[in-house]
Amino acid sequence: MASQEWLEKDFYAILGVPQDASKKDIERAYRKLARELHPDHNPDPTAEDRFKGVSEAYSVLHDDKARAEYDQIQLMKSGRGGFGGMGGGQGVHFDDLFGGGGAGGGFSDLFSDLFSRTGGGAHRRRSGSARGNDLRTHITLDFADAVKGTTTELRMRAPGECETCRGSGAKPGTAPSTCPRCNGRGLVTENQGAFSFAQPCPDCEGTGSVVTDPCPDCGGTGATTRDRVITVRVPAGIGDGQSIRLAGRGAPGEHGGPAGDLLVKVAVRSHPLFARDGDNVTLRLPVAFHEAAMGAKVKVPTLDGPVTLRIPEGTPTGRVLRVKGRGVPGKGDLLVTVDVEVPSSLSAEARDALEKYAAAAPAADRSKLEELTGQ
């Protein structure tokens, strides 16, 4: 019942704009709401339906011709379009008003054309086909696979196209037949007060055909729940909690409609050495006191094997050294934070050497502390 559903929706209210809003205001409102409600970023379970509603409203109001038709339809629905008091309360058929009456030229077809052209009626158009539901699942990745990207197989039990009837719903060797109620048109006329609307046929659900000999495996639905193996390409740099959308890998559509999408939420295992800072991989590197004081070359682990890193002379704790190209491929680096280790005990020889160094070394500059505290 796409036509009636659309008549009952206030697209201006959905986008939060007045009826005289400019095209730029409509676009600005849509972008703001789309960012807030996109299911990949908004965990609220109602966000996805609201996101679809906002997209539906924008697809109509952003199209000048579609918006004009929608405004005209709403005006006539409210009775302010010049037809509200017509015929002394008798039913008025839109096809008669607009010169229709045939199978393909009436005002009811204007609704179907408008809905299919703008995309807002995508869930159930006049043909009766409906997009399948989106499915959700999750995978857990090792840290290195999330950084570098990988291809993995996902095993899940979920609805899929019936392999016996290939989604037709009919027993192999047979085919759906023309619906006797609507004669294959997919639409029947229903009175709605002063007007008549063309609605999807309830017997064939708008498809124009019925299955008289259903498939024994799916019972005529065209879909069965089965084990599925899906190949997932994980992009390099995906973060913990992000999702991958696999178009067309969700539940099959009804009556030949397109399949929904599969949303795969990613969890990333922690690593004992590495962490993430955006596209960069981070590492804390223990450095001996003498290495930090005099400088040194040390081996540093990376996700692709060890590299040699030069520690500059006089490196303090907390200094970050960068190893180019060892983060997310093509985007990030390895950021190495130096942790200078102070020995907890010294041998007699080491203590003697350190005392000689202390005697010759300048004292630490604490003049700023004295200046600030007056002590």
Instruction: Assign the structural class, choosing from mainly alpha, mainly beta, alpha/beta, alpha+beta, or little secondary structure.
Output: alpha+beta
Return the CATH topology of the largest domain: Helix Hairpins
What is the number of E strands? Answer: 16
The unreliable regions are: 80-128
Write down the oligomeric state: single chain
For the biggest sheet, the summary is:
4 strands, mixed
The CATH first-level class of the largest domain comes to Mainly Alpha
Furnish the topology, listing elements before pairings.
Elements (H helix, E strand, L loop, with lengths): L1 H6 L3 H5 L7 H15 L9 H15 L2 H14 L14 E2 H4 L9 H12 L16 E7 L1 H6 L1 E12 L15 E2 L8 E6 L2 E6 L8 E2 L12 E12 L8 E4 L15 E7 L5 E4 L2 E9 H6 L1 E5 L6 E5 L8 E4 L10 E8 L6 H13 L6 H7 L2
Parallel strand pairs: 1-6, 2-10, 12-16
Antiparallel strand pairs: 3-8, 4-7, 5-6, 9-10, 11-12, 13-14, 15-16
Helix pairs in contact: 3-4
Task: Give a concise summary.
The protein is an alpha+beta fold and 375 residues long. The protein is built from eleven helices and 16 strands.
Question: Would you give an account of this structure?
Answer:
With 375 residues, the chain is of the alpha+beta class. The chain folds into three domains: 1-126, Helix Hairpins (Orthogonal Bundle); 132-176 and 211-269, HSP40/DNAj peptide-binding domain (Sandwich), CATH 2.60.260; 274-373, Sandwich (HSP40/DNAj peptide-binding domain). It has eleven helices and 16 strands. The chain has helices at 2-7, 11-15, 23-37, 47-61, 64-77, 94-97, 107-118, 143-148, 289-294, 348-360, 367-373; strands at 92-93, 135-141, 150-161, 177-178, 187-192, 195-200, 209-210, 223-234, 243-246, 262-268, 274-277, 280-288, 296-300, 307-311, 320-323, 334-341. It has a four-stranded mixed beta sheet. The protein has a three-stranded mixed beta sheet with strand order 1-6-5. A three-stranded mixed beta sheet has the order 2-10-9. A hairpin with a 6-residue loop joins strand 13 (296-300) and strand 14. Helix 3 (23-37) packs antiparallel against helix 4. The radius of gyration is 34 Å and the shape is elongated. The model is unreliable at 80-128 (pLDDT under 50).
